[in-house]
Specification:
19% helix; binds adenosine monophosphate; 7 helices; 6-stranded mixed β-sheet; binds magnesium ion; alpha/beta
Length: 416
């Protein structure tokens, strides 16, 4: 055969086109629910959160000290003023500060009207007669936190489609939002295919291998915040595939499989998918990762990942994850690469996007330098275990030279 079976051809999609198309296939789940703040971690906001108040709600003191009117102070000499009120946090002063007066004030306490400066307590001296000696002060407005400095009433503080990390949950709490509206949790279904594939714990007769893909996928999906139903391992049998695919699609928002999507005569996933639903595309100019099947069965999005464990990892990160994040309601679904320099030379096929596993080391000019895992074999799961992330090699040029700036995707991105 003269034609290279893996050479990119005219009918192959570029990786970015494939991602655009697959994102067009899915919408966020329709159902939403209100949850308590402590149940909101990791969930996705389904509406904008608008603050009905200022944060902080009142001008308040940033330190323990004395509230004064700047005009009463001297820039060169000490000033002695009577302390006419005491304002702990949580208490509101009952009158404005008159000229020539000071107020004892504590961190977070509302500043009395007409006071414009807070002097920290350390350089001050309180006398036995109830007066305080204040140091020279050159600048007005110090140590005062203004109402609305963080958030002003009416401001949208978080947009729909935002993932709620601890800091976002705290931010909502700061405006008094107690039950945010979030998308319901996405339900994923996972199974592996292959007559040779066995579950760890079972015997592995000659010719058999243990299923690693399912255990990678279940973890990746849980990290994303999906609930996962595990359908186990299916033999290369169209009837069994059909039955399980139907059951999985009936209850899941996303069905993920690995293996069985090549063009070999034992690869039945695509044919069964074609019968039960629609097959949208599967030829993408990438490596590792060909082949890849995407489609729909009823309401469920279907993603058929390759069988090789490294290809599973890469195609999950690049294709499955953005699709599932969109289904979860997230606004930003693409991984965010960081620039690094190639620490090696490498020849690749032109027109094809490739991802190498790589580790980072410090570089001389501030950009980290990526060293590639020595083998590209897509069955070597150790490459994912020992690497820091994926190094993206663009379609062009075909030759990577040392020092070239490339996109790197840290595995930590998967936790986002
Ligand atoms: P396939 O796409 O079904 O031809 O599988 C490609 C390669 O991946 C074969 O070597 C399979 O044995 C291997 N493979 C398939 N499924 C799994 C799995 N669940 N865990 C580990 N390896 C697998
Ligand atoms: Mg197979």
């Amino acid at each position: 055969m003269s034609r290279d079976a893996f050479a990119p051809s005219a009918d192959m999609l570029r990786a970015d086109e494939a991602i655009t198309r697959l994102l067009a296939l899915v919408e966020p789940v329709a159902e939403t629910e209100r949850v308590a703040l402590t149940d909101a971690y990791g969930r996705v906001l389904a509406e904008d959160v608008v603050s009905d108040r200022n944060v902080p709600p009142h001008d308040n003191s940033a330190v323990d000290g004395y509230a004064v009117r700047f005009a009463d102070l001297s820039a060169e000499a000490e000033t002695t003023l009577p302390v006419v009120m005491r304002i702990p946090a949580g208490h509101v002063p009952d009158r404005p500060l008159a000229p020539g007066e000071a107020a004892r004030i504590f961190t977070g306490a509302p500043v009395p009207v007409e006071a414009d400066t807070i002097i920290p307590q350390e350089p001050c001296r309180e006398e036995a007669d109830g007066r305080v000696v204040l140091p020279p002060v050159k600048k007005a407005g110090q140590n005062l936190r203004r109402a609305g400095e963080d958030i002003v009433a009416g401001q949208c503080i978080l947009g729909a489609g935002t993932r709620l990390r601890p800091q976002e949950v705290g931010y909502m709490a700061s405006v008094g939002c107690a039950r945010p509206l979030v998308y319901r949790t996405v339900r994923a279904a996972v199974f592996s295919t292959g007559d040779e594939v066995r579950d760890p714990g079972a015997d592995a007769p000659p010719g058999a291998i243990y299923d690693s893909n399912r255990y990678v996928l279940i973890g990746l999906l849980r990290d994303m915040g999906c609930t996962v139903r595990d359908f186990g391992i299916l033999p290369d049998d169209p009837a069994r595939l059909r039955a399980v695919l139907q059951e999985a699609a009936a209850e899941a928002d996303v069905v993920l499989t690995s293996g069985g999507v090549s063009t070999g005569e034992e690869d039945h996933v695509k044919a069964v998918l074609g019968e039960l639903g629609t097959l949208d595309f599967w030829r993408v100019a990438i490596r590792p990762g060909r082949p890849l099947a995407l489609g729909r069965v009823g309401q469920a999005a279907f993603i058929g990942l390759p069988g090789n464990p490294v290809a599973v990892f890469v195609t999950f990160m690049m294709f499955a994850r953005p699709l599932i994040l969109k289904r979860m309601g997230l606004r930003e679904v693409l991984p965010r690469p960081v620039p690094v320099r190639a620490g090696f030379a490498f020849k690749k096929r032109p027109g094809r996007r490739e991802w190498l596993r790589a580790t980072l080391e410090p570089g001389e000019d501030g950009l980290p330098v990526a060293q590639r895992f020595p083998s590209e074999g897509s069955g070597i799961l150790r490459s994912v275990v020992t690497s820091h992330g994926l190094l993206a090699l663009p379609e062009d040029p075909a030759e990577i030279t040392p020092g070239m700036v490339l996109d790197f995707l840290p595995f930590e991105e998967l936790k986002r």
